[in-house]
Amino acid sequence: MSERQMTLVGFMQAGNVTVYSGSWRYPSADLGFLTMDYYTHIAKTLEQGKFDCVFFDDRLAMPGVYGDSIDDTVRYGARPVKLDLTAVLGGIIGATSRIGVGATYSTTYYDPFHVARTFATLDHLSGGRAAWNVVTSVNDSEAQNFGVESHLGHDERYDRAHEFLQAVAALWDSWEDGALIMDKESGEFADPSKVHRVDHDGKWFTVRGPLTVPRSPQGRPAILQAGSSGRGRDFAAQWADMIFTADPGLETARSHYREQKEQIAASGRDPEQVKMLPMAYVVVGETEAIAKEKERLFLDAYVHPLASLALLSEVLNYDFAQHDLHDPVTTEMMESSSGIRGLAQGVAKHLDREVTVRDLAAHRATLLQGPRFVGTGEQVADQMQEWFESGGCDGFVLAATHLPGAFEEVVRMVVPVLQERGLFRTEYAGPTLRDQLGVPRP
Prior knowledge:
single chain, alpha/beta, TIM Barrel, 2 domains, eight-stranded parallel β-barrel, two-stranded antiparallel ribbon, flavoprotein, FMN-dependent oxidoreductase (Nitrilotriacetate monooxygenase family), Luciferase-like_dom
């Protein structure tokens, strides 16, 4: 029996595609993404597989940077649909009892009081299973939906995010444990000496408090964060319970793991209690040949190049419509966006040749973003075990090639093998997400 066990998180979008933009075209894909049953079925499947958490990515705009138009986004289904996550999580909470539920909320377009109240409420209604994926938001389409002409600079976004977290944490802590008395006889509802104003007065926010929600079952909902830049890694070291990474290969993942854990320790926190989780795809088949054929289809058959470019333009805030697919990625392009530079360097390591615009687009929209584990249940478990046991990660954020099939296949074919090897739980550790993660209640 392995002492240490994997953390597994299901990665979702509340819309027509997963993070793989061809997912809606897969022959067996369920297109019921505008119904609650779609989301509750997936969450119940992951709970059956004893996953720690299901969390939803979000963007606050339809991709519209490519050609300064939404036409290709809409035509090819490049994530034009994004439902409100509070309602989706509410439905999942009612249909499940143990799996953690996470949502992405931006520190750039929401206010601390709103976010603190939303996640404290979700934590109560779920019995302590809420997680907040903190993002700073990077693109102009989102800014313009919120009446701002363009987004803040990189460091300013992180300055604001840091203060945002301070204010939210203070609001979550504004009710002490045991503040509620609820004595019908005496008429005393709660102890005012245990409910405090926050009086946060900072550069970005002024928040009086207290929160209108008593202290929640987890004390503070769990925090998930995916910063990969220097400032992002600092932020994660200080605040995150789970760090969502995008390391393409095992060597990169090992060095990132080692450096980030050192950074967590340097910020005065226990590195054992922060989970580092690379995003990975699993393509599993009853035989290796079946898995390889499915992988070929996912790479070649379902992603339209213009859908790729629409998404790539959005995530990098750069209009690729000015280039041909065959154009090489130039120094000038890389200087216009740090995101292009990072992505191009990562893709160049993969390909070992000159990188073209088509290569970038394919990387973003297909299965090249993180590790890809392909094969039978046993083979996939071998690959996951190698990453987990050789200092690459504490588990995985699993992205789906299609829904609900990809998660159903992982739960049916891969999870039992991990459980047999003692690498993954057979039962939930307790009622809260912090119980599953082994992270103490603050």
